[in-house]
């Protein structure tokens, strides 16, 4: 039995190592979709989600224990019954071994015990929050993550923004925007510092909810960020602009756009046209579109692309202006001829799958042996 388990783990480890060379891990494709079966967009980059690294670590832990998971779980259960201390490495191993909902019940109990024993030792300590949230993501148990992250008895266990960001991202993927907003407000109530990814998630969630309350929440967060002199990313601002336009707050959308330092992106270009159209600045919208057709001959200028949806909005606004309609038709013909009209909606452009900041490149010149042991580095993941 142990030999069969060892061979199974060895085969799985080798699969992971082969997958790493092509950037594919057990159905996960960086820059594509969550799992091969998921096919849904998300907002955080691969180097924040770290699903691939998490999967590799799980395989390595399983390999190291060599099929003794059940024994390990029983040892932890006995230790908890005897009120023994749960050590950091023990909890890490336990979380990496979880594969089912039943496993997670023991993990939850261990987390409560560990936090009760270590609630006052946080400085420089390992952050378990992101690990637990990634585990819930893998097992489709995001409700467990929601319950624990909101539990007052565990305040301090999820002391990092990454845990909240990943959980909001999970809920966003699943279309649970109300739940994601609750986590955002919980993060704020717990005094967890927002980073640039938090603002992207916050404004995207409010944009998806698209109601008066979410608009007010978005604007409040935006005002607070400006007061604190926070630098908002272009992407975060784009969601806020789109929400303002959906709520018919054109002046607010125009103001937010004016604060973007470098609005040279597909989303910003399309939102700028919409701002002009909804502000009845139709000549300005046509001028921007026309200028974009004149820039395509330069190899130094990126070709601007416009959504069919945006052009349709402009066309509708031009109703009753025959001279401008004729000019618009000529411009559209040029845009189509140069391949500058795209079928994606504004929503699709805003929620485009982000590329990770770390390129998934395998170096064939990379050192393959350990300087210390002179053995292959392929098993270093297991050994460590």
UniProtKB/TrEMBL annotation:
It comes from Sarcophilus harrisii (Tasmanian devil). Coiled coil: none annotated. NCBIfam families: PPR. Gene3D superfamilies: Tetratricopeptide repeat domain. Keywords: Mitochondrion, mRNA processing. InterPro entries: mS27/PTCD2 (IPR034913), PPR_rpt (IPR002885), PTCD2 (IPR034629), TPR-like_helical_dom_sf (IPR011990). Belongs to the PTCD2 family. PANTHER family: PENTATRICOPEPTIDE REPEAT-CONTAINING PROTEIN 2, MITOCHONDRIAL (PTHR14700). GO terms for molecular function: RNA binding. One of its GO terms (cellular component) is mitochondrion. PROSITE patterns: PPR. Pfam families: MRP-S27. PPR repeats lie at residues 160-194. The keyword Mitochondrion applies. One of its GO terms (biological process) is muscle cell development. Transmembrane segments: none annotated. This is Pentatricopeptide repeat-containing protein 2, mitochondrial.
């Amino acid at each position: 039995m142990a030999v069969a388990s060892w061979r199974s783990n060895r085969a799985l480890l080798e699969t992971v190592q082969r997958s790493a060379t092509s950037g594919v891990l057990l159905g996960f494709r960086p820059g594509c979709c969550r799992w091969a079966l998921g096919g849904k967009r998300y907002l955080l980059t691969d180097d924040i989600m770290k699903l691939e690294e998490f999967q590799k670590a799980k395989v390595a832990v399983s390999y190291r224990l060599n099929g003794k998971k059940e024994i390990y779980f029983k040892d932890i259960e006995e230790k908890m019954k005897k009120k023994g201390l749960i050590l950091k490495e023990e909890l890490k191993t336990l979380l990496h071994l979880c594969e089912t909902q039943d496993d997670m019940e023991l993990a939850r109990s261990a987390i409560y015990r560990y936090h009760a024993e270590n609630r006052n030792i946080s400085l420089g300590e390992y952050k378990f929050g992101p690990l637990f949230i990634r585990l819930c993501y893998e097992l489709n148990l995001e409700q467990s993550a929601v319950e624990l992250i909101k539990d007052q008895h565990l305040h301090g266990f999820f002391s990092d923004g990454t845990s909240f960001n990943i959980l909001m991202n999970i809920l966003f993927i699943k279309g649970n925007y109300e739940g994601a907003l609750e986590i955002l407000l919980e993060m704020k109530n717990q005094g967890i510092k927002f980073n640039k990814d938090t603002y992207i998630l916050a404004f995207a969630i409010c944009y998806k909810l698209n109601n008066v309350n979410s608009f007010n929440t978005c604007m409040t967060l935006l005002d607070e960020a400006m007061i604190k002199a926070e630098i908002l990313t272009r992407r975060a601002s784009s969601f806020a602009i789109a929400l303002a336009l959906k709520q018919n707050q054109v002046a607010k959308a125009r103001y937010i756009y004016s604060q973007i330092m470098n609005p040279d992106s597909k989303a910003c270009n399309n939102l700028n046209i919409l701002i002009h159209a909804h502000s009845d600045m139709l000549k300005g919208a046509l001028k921007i579109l026309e200028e974009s057709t004149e820039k395509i001959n330069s190899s130094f200028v990126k070709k601007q692309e416009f959504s069919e949806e945006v052009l349709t909005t402009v066309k509708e606004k031009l109703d009753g202006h025959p001279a401008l309609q004729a000019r618009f038709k000529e411009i559209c013909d040029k845009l189509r001829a140069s391949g500058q009209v795209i079928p994606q909606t504004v929503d699709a452009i805003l929620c485009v799958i982000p590329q990770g900041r770390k390129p998934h490149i395998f170096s064939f010149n990379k050192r393959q042996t350990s300087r210390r042991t002179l053995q292959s580095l392929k098993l270093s993941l297991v050994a460590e």
